[in-house]
Amino acid sequence: MDAFLLPGICIAELSGFPPEDIAFQAIVYGVNIPLYAFAARTILIFTARLLGLYHPAQYRYWPRLPWRTPMKVWVHLRIWFERTFLMGKRATGGFANALETLTLIYKPGQILLGRAFAWGLGLLQPVGMKVERHLFMYAMTGAGKTTALVTILSTWHNSVFCIDPKAQITNALFRHDWRTWVVLDPYGISMAASASFNAIDCIKEAIDRDGPKAAVLWAIRIAQALIITPSASRTPYFTDTARGYLVGVLLHVLSCHPEDEHNLPYIRKLLANGYRIYDEKTGKEETTTEEAHQLLLRAMLNNTAFDGAVTGAAAAMASASGDTGGNVRSTLLEQTKWLDNPAICDVLLNTTMPLRELKTRNDVVFSLAAPVLSIREELAPLCRLVTNMMAYIFEAVVEKNGQCLMIEDELPSQGYNETFEIMLPVARSYGQTVLGISQNIELMKKVYPKSWATFSGEADAVYWMATNHNDTAAYLAQTLGKKSHVTKDPYSGRKNYREVAVMDADQIKRFLSPGSNNLIVTRAGARALKLKNEPYFKALPVWKYAADPDHKETFFRRIMRKLFGRNPMPIYKEEKPIEVINHTPPETQEDSTIEPEIVHAKNIIPFPDNPKPKMRK
Fold first, then answer.
1. Which of 232, 422, 454, 613 makes a 20 to 30 Å CA pair with 100?
2. What is the pLDDT of residues 551-582, one digit of tens each?
3. Secondary structure class of 18 (helix, strand, coil)
């Protein structure tokens, strides 16, 4: 028997052992070796996580028994049996069991869902899935949402667009990520230097790509992002007319004004002040407010550029006379007042990086960082504008390099966005994987009263994190469905079926309590998963993120950061503003009649903060 234990033993020497001894030893080794390997893997991964040397993508490289493929086959057979013989007869709801959950091992190219949870314990295996449509997340304040998003973004192997309240994601990753980071930061709350985004450049790119006629379409798209009609509005006339007039002003400025005035802050001043005339000698304004607006309107009526689109927009505004015209102008000024903020104006004058690069490159992160209250208030139109421009650009640009993850935090704060509502089902085919985020269902119902359920109901997966909101918990309980308890009468042998909820609302709130680190992921056409959240300060290696004072690093991770830390990446690669060779459409260069004399008249300036009269050249 001792000879059997020697590593160099020959197979021929086994002939002296009884068959039952050989079988026994084979069973012993067949059981012990996997157990030892499992124990070694568990200890090493646990230690690596503790020290900050582990990454979720490393897990799949560990040796393991090939049981997952047969288990996947068994899961499919169970689904077939349930659909064929049980549906319509009794409730079959329930969570995926532990083994089914463990078959969903995370691999690069997938979205990270969390860490496996089984038998009441959090396991070490990262769980992921391939996304075919979009994703959604419900998480209350303090649920660990942002720390999970840092991990999700870091483990995503393509470009990313992110709305980042508090700049926590940006500060944690931008110096340590392998991608180029472009950070739009109007208030300077991040540690990165702010980039710029000029929406008018999207029109110029469209002209270069599709010709001068594309300018009208893209001006309409910008106006739709800036002027919104509430979904429950009964008087859309004022917003519709204001939107149409804004389209005309955009095209008018593009066709008649110099290059340095092609930006939204200038257009806002033009909308507010019109064309004002000042006396050359005294500097005193000679026009009233109404006359200044009439001068702008007259100039637009004389502008035949873009096949008369400017004239048409001005004519619609001119027909809205009296109080009606005043209401239209008030609507326009009210919905563009955020452009009076100097901090916002500074980041809207030029373009650091064209948004098309998020589709044509796989190594770019565009982050819009701002305080939470600002995203919910004055910066909501900016978030909506950038989101919509991305959707349109991804549709228009053919070249694609992977999928861009689009993280829309504080989604209800942007207000009702018809464009986002329409693009959500088709975004995947254009190269966007959308992850929308809301604190609770009530906020989604308020903003999208008719379609709020679409955002989660048609998603590939929905993250449900800590909540104490009754409607959210009740909706999740309804989504999880019911299951049947089967009992057998000991005397008659008859089976009794009793239907109960998989989890009721109260159980959901206690299971997803803040601090538990638990989450539930519901999947399209599959059983829901119980998982553990993966915060970045536990899931990522120390060289992948910056230490966060809000989440104090453990003693071992601080040591490893000093030993294995590396020089941080630059803030972002310097990009030149895009250059459009021919900003003025050919039709405007040949026909001098389209340049209204009012625009070039003596002493006309666009806004009243110039101390002296000025003549346009």
1. 454
2. 888 899 999 998 886 655 444 334 444 343 34
3. coil
Per-residue pLDDT of 65-96, as tens digits, reads 888 899 999 989 988 888 888 887 888 888 99
Between the two ends of the chain, the Cα-to-Cα distance in Å is: 103
Amino acid identity for residue 517 in this structure: N
Which is it for strands 495-501 and 482-488: parallel, antiparallel or unpaired? antiparallel
How are beta strands 404-408 and 432-438 bridged, if at all?
parallel
> Exposed e or buried b for every residue in 202-227, given b needs 16+ CB within 10 A?
bbbbbbbeeebebbbebbbbbbbbbb
Strand pairing of 604-605 and 526-532? unpaired
The residues near 266 (Cβ < 8 Å, ≥ 6 apart) are 253, 257, 606
Beta strands in 80-205 (DSSP E): 111-118, 121-129, 135-138, 160-165, 180-184
Show the beta-strand stretches assigned E in 134-179.
Answer: 135-138, 160-165
Q: Strands (DSSP E) along 98-241, which ranges?
A: 111-118, 121-129, 135-138, 160-165, 180-184
Does residue 486 surpass a pLDDT of 90? no
H helix runs in 289-436, sequence order: 289-301, 305-319, 322-335, 342-346, 357-360, 372-376, 380-396, 418-423, 427-430
pTM recorded for the entire structure: 0.84
Domains of the chain as residue ranges with CATH? 3-51 (no CATH), 134-197+353-550 (3.40.50.300), 200-343+585-605 (no CATH)
